[in-house]
Amino acid sequence: MGSRCALSRQILALMNLGVVFPSFLASSVDDVQGSVLLSYLRHASVVSPVAYYTLDPGVTARIRTHPAVARVIPAMPLTLVVSTPPLAKVGMTVYGVSEDDLLVLVDLYGMSLKEGRLPRARSSEVVLSESVALNRGLHVGDTVGRPAQEQDDTPALMRGGIPTEAEIVGILAPGGQWMGFASLEYLESHELYSPRRACLIVVPVEGRRAELDAWLEENVASTETDVRTYDARLREMRQSTRGTLLMLAAIESIIALVAAIALAVLNYIFFTQRHEEFGILHAMGRSRSWIVRRVAGESVGVVALAWLIGAVVCVVGLLLAQASVYAPKGLSLDFSNPAPWLFTLPIPLAVVAASAGTIAWTLSKLDPVSIIERR
């Protein structure tokens, strides 16, 4: 009995760990990438042309005159590469804006200078948020862009990257924001930037964000005009995450089936070893349902302990990953997400059901009289 329980605990703990750790890691990576990719949309929406370098003047005029719009900021988006472990790299946005608009955006996103200063107009300078600087290991006085940083030479980001060296002149706090700012006047005057597509950062009137975003999505978005709002982008990313989790669910279903079959075999062997014990209990008046409940209770205890062991190992592994991999990159895993833990339930439920079902089926053929007579 002891060796069976120990073997069952080890098998179930490994299976639980094999499900919850990849589930947690997959959902956490999506959350991490979402925090980077959606940071610039938390307090404003962005409207940009699809096929041309500038927006249609009529579209711009409609946006400026909408009553839910507090401010419209012309900008030129650039892309800076950051790392999102374990393997991925994504591009976060550096906006080229005017000096006056830069002050507005820094205030809008609740940031302030931690060190250094803001970029001067018509200068090849940038200011980065603290998280971006930590992720890239950058400090005031360092440079980004090509050819200074090889990782900024990623082919996929050539169209939106930074083709010249830009000096970091300031770091913005607090952490958690994934943004940077450069001088729009400099970008517009430089031959390597002037062909870039411009965009509009649309700041809503306080309390009217939902109204403005709905209007932009319904009346401005078209085949020629791209509208990016926080809620719409979040829905897209969650849909992608659901696809990943569904794939893991399919894998887990196979694991649960294998676990159920393995435990059914173990329980059959276990029953044959305790055949006389169950026969005597039944002959003494214990009902088959009582015996099944007792065996199911033993299985629940084994499963619960195995789940706890797997959960503890998983949490320790995630905490180590947070401390050694994510925190040094300015990132944070989301431990409050219940979805990965829900993925662990089918395995123990399948195991308990298989245990109780196997014993109930075997007991249905048990003849306590023959067992007593053989003794």
Please outline what is shown here.
This protein has helices spanning 2-37, 57-65, 99-108, 130-136, 184-189, 209-220, 230-273, 275-283, 288-326, 339-342, 346-363, 368-374; strands at residues 45-49, 69-84, 88-97, 112-116, 125-129, 143-144, 166-173, 179-183, 199-204, 225-228. By secondary structure, it is α+β, with helices and mostly antiparallel strands.
The secondary-structure element order is: HEHEEHEEHEEEHEHEHHHHHH
What is the typical, i.e. mean, pLDDT?
79
Helix content: 40-55%
Integer count of domains: 2
Q: How many strands? A: 10
Strand residue content:
15-25%
Largest sheet descriptor: 10 strands, mixed
Radius of gyration: 30 Å
- Could you say which structural class the secondary elements and strand pairing correspond to? alpha+beta
Shape: elongated
Low-confidence stretches: none
- Separation, N- and C-terminal Cα atoms: 22 Å
Number of separate helices: 12
Care to describe what's here?
With 375 residues, the protein is of the alpha+beta class. It folds into two domains: 2-32 and 237-374, no CATH class; 74-198, no CATH class. The chain is built from twelve helices and ten strands. The mean pLDDT is 79.
